[in-house]
Automatic annotation (TrEMBL):
It comes from Acetohalobium arabaticum (strain ATCC 49924 / DSM 5501 / Z-7288). This protein is involved in the repair of mismatches in DNA. It is required for dam-dependent methyl-directed DNA mismatch repair. May act as a 'molecular matchmaker', a protein that promotes the formation of a stable complex between two or more DNA-binding proteins in an ATP-dependent manner without itself being part of a final effector complex. One of its GO terms (molecular function) is mismatched DNA binding. It comes from the Bacteria. One of its GO terms (cellular component) is mismatch repair complex. Belongs to the DNA mismatch repair MutL/HexB family. Residues 201-319 form the DNA mismatch repair protein S5 domain. This is DNA mismatch repair protein MutL. The chain holds residues 10 to 332 of 660 of the full protein.
């Protein structure tokens, strides 16, 4: 039992950044308008996520820590029609199996909340506790009981970079949510949460990048593309700074990246990639998706069509821009 759950946990949780991704996605699913992430030593010592979401009752909290107990859906064939980011009910129990986890949570209709403490999957404490509405999860000593996994962790600097990449992307996908990230008590990111993508880009990438952005706003029969791409001469340009979201889900796709390069064509020096933050909206029934639990990579049908609409949208934006 214990071994099985540790193995399964390793499949979902590879590194501190996976913990952050899962916890923050849960906070987004819970309708939080503010999500605060505190990390120490690249997440190896501590990861804390505090949200202002709808929280859990004591029964919900107990259930949430059981494997495959998702409150979100029962069957997941068409991922894009799922409104929530999570749907497997694996993340929380997996994290709890390989760390020392403390959770405090409270719903709006209750005066008090619940405190749960779990070490290596074993519930140590579950009791009433005073706390604000929302959920506050502390994950300490990740992989303390799976030393082989622990050994594969990279330096604190590398792990925090991965965490910050993920938080940046989630922040760009949800400009209406305030994201705060700190590492060893130092502020790394704070977004305004005012719903404005440009203001969010400013917090994530800074003034120079924000100033060089060109708005993309394009509609095709089936799809809508909006967001920003950078002017061709921007210095920070790299594929790392391209984020694509289909119906608000982050997508890593070489085809979409290539579509952007094609739209710039000769405007771009060889081997250079513009910054791009682009959202594609389309009817969920038009795409089939499947995701690997740990990977950001998502396979989706109609990648070619999406790529070509993206290319047209970016091309149009560039031709109207003052470069
Ligand atoms: P999934 O997200 O796939 O449903 P998780 O293991 O990530 O599975 O979470 C299990 C359940 O715990 C969720 O379905 C949800 O009901 C509850 N939950 C987890 N995190 C939160 C949170 N921050 N706020 C409210 N509910 C939460
Ligand atoms: Mg989840």
């Amino acid at each position: 039992q214990e071994v099985v759950s540790k193995i399964a946990a390793g499949e979902v949780i590879e590194r501190p950044a996976s913990v952050v991704k899962e916890l923050v996605e849960n906070s987004i699913d819970a309708d939080s308008d503010k999500i605060e992430i505190k990390v120490n030593n690249g997440g190896k010592d501590l990861i804390q996520v505090i949200d202002t979401g709808y929280g859990m009752t004591r029964e919900d909290a107990e259930l949430a820590l059981e494997r495959h107990a998702t409150s979100k859906i029962t069957e997941a064939n068409d991922l894009f029609s799922i409104r929530s980011l999570g749907f497997r009910g694996e993340a929380l129990p997996s994290i709890a199996a390989i760390s020392r986890l403390t959770m405090k949570t409270r719903t709006e209709d209750k005066l008090g909340g619940t405190l749960v403490k779990i070490n290596g999957g074993e519930i140590k404490k579950i009791e009433d506790a005073g706390c604000p509405i929302g959920t506050n999860i502390i994950v300490k000593d990740l992989f303390y009981n799976t030393p082989v996994r622990y050994k594969y962790l990279k330096t604190s600097a590398t792990e925090i970079r991965r965490i910050s990449d993920i938080v940046n992307r989630l922040a760009l996908a949800y400009p209406e949510i305030t994201f705060k990230l700190s590492h060893n008590q130092k502020k790394v990111l704070e977004t305004p949460g005012n719903g404005n993508l440009m203001d969010t880009i400013l917090s994530v990438y800074g003034k120079e990048v924000a100033k060089s952005m060109i708005a993309v706003d394009y509609e095709d029969k089936y799809m809508q593309v909006s967001g920003y791409v950078s002017k061709p001469n921007i210095s920070r340009a790299s594929k790392k700074h391209q984020s694509f979201f289909i119906n608000r889900r982050y997508i890593k796709s070489r085809a979409l990246s290539e579509a952007i390069s094609k739209a710039y064509h000769t405007l771009l020096a060889k081997g250079r990639h513009p910054i791009a933050i682009l959202t594609i909206k389309l009817n969920p029934v038009l795409v089939d998706v499947n995701v690997h639990p740990t990977k950001m990579e998502v396979n989706f049908s109609r990648e070619k069509e999406v790529a070509s609409v993206l290319q047209n949208g970016v091309k149009e934006a560039l031709s109207n821009a003052d470069l």
